Amino acid sequence: xxxxxxxxxxIIDGKEYLSRSGVYLIDVARENRIFIPTLCNIxxxxxxxxxxxCTVSVNxxxxxxxxxxxxxxxxxxxxxPDLHDLRKAILEIMFVEGNHICPVCEKSGNCDLQALAYxxxxxxxxxxxxxxxxxxxxxxxxxxxxxxxxxxxxxxIRTIKDEQGRSFxxxxxxxxxxxxxxAHHLKxxxxxxxxxxxxxxxxxxxxxxxxxxxxxxxSERKYERTPIGSEIESLKQSVIGDQ
Amino acid sequence: MAQKITIExxxxxxxxxxxxxxxxxxxxVVRSRLHIVEFRGFERFIQGRPYWEAPVLVQRLCxxxxxxxHLAAAKAxxxxxxxxxxxxxxHTAEKVRRLMHYAQIFQSHALHFFHLASPDLLFGVDADPKxxxxxxxxxxxxxxxxxxxxxxxxxxxxxxxTAGKKIHGTGAIPGGVNKNLTEEERDAFTKGAAPMxxxxxxxxxxxxxxFFKQYYKKNREFIDTFSVFPSNHLxxxxxxxxxxxxxxxxxxxxxxxxxxxxxxxxxxYFNYIHEEVRSWSYMKFPYIxxxxxxxxxxxxxxxxxxxxxxxxxxxxxxxxFEQYKxxxxxxxxxxxxxxxxxxxxxxxxxxxxxRDLLNDPDLQGNELVRRGEKKxxxxxxxxxxxxxxxxxxxxxxxxxxxxxxxIVSTTNNNEPMNRAVNHVAKTMMTGKKExxxxxMNAVEVAIRAYDPCLSCATHALGQMPLEVSLFxxxxxxxxxxxxx
Lengths: 243, 484
Description:
The structure holds two protein chains of two kinds.
Chain A: E1 7-12, E2 15-20, H1 25-31, E3 55-58, E4 61-64, E5 75-77, H2 81-97, H3 112-119, E6 136-137, E7 143-146, H4 155-159, E8 169-172, E9 179-182, H5 192-201, E10 207-209, H6 222-225
Parallel strand pairs in A: 1-5
Antiparallel strand pairs in A: 1-2, 3-4, 3-5, 6-7, 7-10, 8-9
Chain B: E1 3-13, E2 17-23, E3 29-36, H1 42-45, H2 54-58, H3 66-80, H4 91-123, H5 134-140, H6 142-163, E4 172-173, E5 176-177, H7 183-190, H8 198-218, H9 220-225, E6 232-237, E7 249-253, E8 259-264, H10 269-272, E9 273-276, E10 285-288, H11 292-295, E11 298-299, H12 302-308, H13 315-326, H14 338-358, E12 377-384, E13 387-395, E14 401-407, H15 409-412, H16 414-429, H17 437-448, H18 454-458, E15 464-471, E16 477-482
Parallel strand pairs in B: 2-15, 6-11
Antiparallel strand pairs in B: 1-2, 1-15, 2-3, 4-5, 6-7, 7-8, 9-10, 12-13, 13-14, 15-16
């Protein structure tokens, strides 16, 4: 058995790669220009495996690439028809569980969820829309929380913290009513710079900076310039779903 | 036996509507109505949304003139963010918006004249519907059809350059715009191969006017007598009385030319214009408050604009305007079919404005947004292709919209369109035992002159075909004909 940090051999999609043991599979894939879609994962932040978008097959078992450290001899499949369909289903569930109206959303073109929907060529979800009744919380002077668009990925909770490591965001309520909130005891410390970081880290349009929407012209938005995954994949890499 | 005729759906207009005509036992028209049969509810579901979303969200009312809604909402929110109205924006922002707007006027007027109206003019109101359409136009006058398509394309390309997309762009934001027009984008138009350049568009707009004038010469009686009735007229005009489709004050005149609203500030439109609700239509009936519901109704759109303005500030359109005004010896024009004539003069004006604006270096400026002291309420008014368009928003302390009121161009023309239907029905159907297709089309021709966008006006979904039903004196439907 390999020790942590030792050089190991793994197989990804039939090809052998060298890596160091203990490194998360998602990072190994990224280093080797293999795109595995993610939504809740952020580089440098402890992974949670919340969204399951990065599910891959490891030695025949489904595991999340963001929480799985590689080890000697692992045989990983990132791109099978089953995985493609599983990921697509996860995306479709996210769309039907919220109220995502992309045509009027100011995050359109910069939204990870929308970009993945385009990549997976989602036209009509297979599940019925639930049209939940959700609110918009605009009480904070710097941020608007549009719960219609939140996919509960916890990126804001895990990333936006003060010097003492306390999170500015938290979950409140339970079950299907679960939603993000701004921590009451820290709300006065939330400044413009922190608000901007929160908006940037949100993969959808659930967190919006007040009074500054639609500033980036159409055709200059992030995923219009660089479709999601294309910054990772080499030109020769096959696209998801192709076998 | 008394009858009720229903024309449903009305064709070659945008949205869904139907016409009902009630005849008494002698076959006299006793009542006729244009019903708007759909409901959309934008004013309600925008409540609670952040105010800066309004220009992008509300424009989804329409796929034909979204730019008008986009800009009217942005103008209202200019007031909210403290940039003021009209000239409060930077030169670049105002001119980019003007370019976007005149491109919209240009493409929409071209669409209406060439695609929707020209079949009636080319083939006649009573021609076979199988040939009385744009495909029929293309068969007998290919040049005219191609011109229509290319003029619309030119306008749409300009909208894309300024708003980011041909339909439902995001160019205008509260206090300004999110992009200027780069030199490369400008050159694509100014140095574009013929006919896709502003000079060619001016020539084509002149040719369209010539086409109409020739038609007018041969059909003067029809054009001068079809659906003629006196009305008030209302539009924005520039401070000096010039035609200005982007910004100005509200002026209204009566059918004789007497000014009844004297260049009032549109921020206070609600003091001058009220809306009446009638149970049989989803479209409201606006009227000038001082004159009351019965006498305060008015027309908007090209016919009204050329009645209220004193002059047109571009030379070729001004020359045509003078000829046009000579037809009524300078008096207000109340002839419904002259709306087509007025629309084409505006088409030429828009082409001239676009040509001149494209040479303005302010379009390449970098000051895109201005802001000032924030307010909780703002009104934006613009002259959309179909007439005066009002957007009014009030926001709460959290920047959420708590009230929105939209008076859409076609809504302003609700009563005039109903009068037009009544006028034509009385003329064409009184005493007739059988309702023929040409009679129904004549009703549509009267509605079509207003270029109504019923989807916008009612905030309703869909396209606009027309249905006519025939009812007896006991209100029992005895015949119904559908089109579309």
